[in-house]
Amino acid sequence: MDDCRDVEVRVLGGGFVDPAGNYSTPESYKATVLPGDLLTCTTTLTGNQTNVNVATGVTCLDNANVSGTVTVAAGASLLVKKGTLGGALNATGAEAVQIFGATVNGAAKIANSTRDVTIAGSTFRGGLTLTGNTQVTANERYTRLAGAYGPILSGSTVFGLTCTGNSAEVSDFGAPNTFHGSQSGGGACQGPVSTDGGVGGSVPATLALTLGPAANFGALTAGIGKDYTAQTSANVISTAGKAALSVSEPGHLMNGTFALPQPLVVEFSKSTWTAPVSNDAVTILFKQRVDANDALRTGSYSKTLTFTLSTTEP
Description:
Elements: E1 10-12, E2 15-17, E3 23-24, E4 43-45, E5 48-49, E6 52-54, E7 58-62, E8 65-66, E9 70-72, E10 77-81, E11 84-85, E12 89-92, E13 96-100, E14 103-104, E15 108-111, E16 116-120, E17 123-124, E18 128-131, H1 140-146, E19 152-154, E20 157-164, E21 178-184, E22 207-211, E23 226-238, E24 242-247, E25 254-255, E26 258-259, E27 264-268, E28 272-273, E29 277-290, E30 307-313
Parallel strand pairs: 4-7, 5-8, 6-9, 7-10, 8-11, 9-12, 10-13, 11-14, 12-15, 13-16, 14-17, 15-18, 16-19, 17-20, 18-20, 20-21
Antiparallel strand pairs: 1-2, 2-3, 22-23, 23-29, 24-28, 24-30, 25-26, 27-29
């Protein structure tokens, strides 16, 4: 194809090297080749800019961030490579406007250009209007085979698009655009419209603690020193960022007014959580020491305990 932008592919030892110098094993890929040449800059701006007024020649915005408006006067040209245009873009009667890999947050209007409008891989969040532009073919062979093409809008994302009165229909050269909101015009100005939607739900604050059956040490034998153990379980549900399981002071097992001399011990297999959790099982272990000389009263010893699941980060 004559007069196409350069694409460089190098192969070394069975590997692939792209124009950026990245090396990898060969794989299939698809490239979109656009007709025409990059504009030759007479003025280049980089970094942060406020307002940019292009009065004559070719101004290039090379990865620049423009907070205000970009205005292109009749007969002047603009080349934008990457970067962000925070305000509006207005080009009326420009010779050429080329935009590659950039984001335009304000309304973009390109009208009555006389030679070239080429846009690729860019995002227009404030809408894009292409009206009355003349696209001078850069490839006679392509034009003979496929017909004249208008402004080039390729592989871009546009939130609201209007295309009217151009020298020919807008073309994407095989790299479809993504559209949000309204669109008007033919050729590449038409395509599937994507609308952002959403679905969600809410989780109520939940701290749930469920205990298993009451633990039982069985028969406590008087006159014999022994360590008794018993256990039960707990189920924890927490939507909090952090949660903690605690128990009231165990004290001593009681039989009426009689208390076991040795204190009751309560241990958890897990007592803290640093993230939400659902149906987390906890083993609660009870330990009771009875010494050989401890006096035991006939009957049942017991103790009511309060288990609490709490949080400091709901």
